[in-house]
């Protein structure tokens, strides 16, 4: 499976592509960061991110796109930029009909380091080790994008089993609902 991980950000958007499957060695196909000028208007920055992601999709033909799920932050301006960049990545994947997975930062940290509270240095060190790299990808956004891809490769089989179980339980909706509840 080839997974493109996207660590969304308006100034720096990390992108990484990893090949692998559960129980097999992982291989980094590519890693980088899409950058936009802070003094550019937001709409223009989003266009630059969209073009960059489309170029990565063209160049690397991933099977799945894994994007960091936006979470609440104290700085509303930062979370807005992250959410906007995330939406662009999701749109690019959807436009191509690619499966999309969203993973929280703590899920990614736990999958890669064993602790959902790991810091950036620990994530970078484990990505370096797992992918057998000479040094940690820089900046941290690049390492985080690779960590997202690794997380998805390792968690995809469990997610697929859960999705299939829900579809069997409720084929008309593809999800399970508590007894007595009604569809929304």
Automatic annotation (TrEMBL):
Gene3D superfamilies: Ribonuclease H-like superfamily/Ribonuclease H. Mg(2+) 2 binds at residue 68. Its EC number is 3.1.21.10. It comes from the Bacteria. It holds the Pfam family RuvC. GO terms for molecular function: crossover junction DNA endonuclease activity; DNA binding; magnesium ion binding. It is found in: Cytoplasm. Binds 2 Mg(2+) ion per subunit. InterPro entries: RNaseH-like_sf, RNaseH_sf, X-over_junc_endoDNase_Mg_BS, X-over_junc_endoDNase_RuvC. NCBIfam families: ruvC (TIGR00228). Homodimer which binds Holliday junction (HJ) DNA. The HJ becomes 2-fold symmetrical on binding to RuvC with unstacked arms; it has a different conformation from HJ DNA in complex with RuvA. In the full resolvosome a probable DNA-RuvA(4)-RuvB(12)-RuvC(2) complex forms which resolves the HJ. HAMAP family: RuvC (MF_00034). This is Crossover junction endodeoxyribonuclease RuvC. It comes from Streptomyces marincola. The gene is ruvC.
């Amino acid at each position: 499976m080839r997974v493109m991980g996207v660590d969304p950000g308006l100034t720096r958007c990390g992108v990484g592509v990893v090949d692998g499957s559960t129980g097999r060695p992982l291989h980094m196909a590519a890693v980088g960061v899409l950058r936009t000028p802070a003094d550019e208007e937001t709409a223009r920055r989003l266009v630059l991110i969209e073009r960059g992601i489309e170029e990565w999709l063209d160049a690397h033909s991933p099977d799945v796109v894994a994007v960091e799920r936006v979470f609440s932050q104290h700085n509303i301006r930062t979370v807005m930029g992250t959410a906007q960049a995330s939406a662009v990545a999701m749109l690019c994947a959807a436009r191509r009909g690619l499966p999309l997975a969203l993973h929280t930062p703590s899920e990614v940290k736990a999958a890669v380091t064993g602790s959902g509270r790991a810091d950036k240095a620990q994530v970078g060190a484990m990505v370096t080790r797992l992918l057998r790299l000479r040094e940690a990808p820089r900046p941290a956004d690049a390492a985080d994008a690779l960590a997202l891809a690794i997380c998805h490769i390792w968690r995809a089989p469990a997610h697929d089993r859960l999705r299939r179980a829900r579809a069997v339980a409720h084929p008309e909706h593809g999800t399970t609902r508590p007894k007595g509840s009604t569809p929304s």
